Amino acid sequence: MQVTDIVSMVANVGFPVTLCFILIKYVLQNVDEKLSKMEDSLQNLAQEIQRLDESNTEIKPTNHAKQHQAK
């Protein structure tokens, strides 16, 4: 977004509305980046689970998982 676009928006819709648009654009960009990273992590996790399943490797619970089950 160029400065001239921002000035034009302020002139047309007002300062608070313009700030809302800018904030929404910023938040949506950040959420998109985070969701992309999460999607990559989930794909890697699914591949690792499939690899473990194919190799018939027993998955042993970690200490954290044992503590969580005890609750």
TrEMBL record:
Coiled coil: 28-58
Superkingdom as given in the UniProt entry: Bacteria
Transmembrane segments: 6-28
Keywords: Coiled coil, Membrane, Transmembrane, Transmembrane helix
Name by which UniProt lists this protein: YvrJ family protein
Organism: Fontibacillus solani
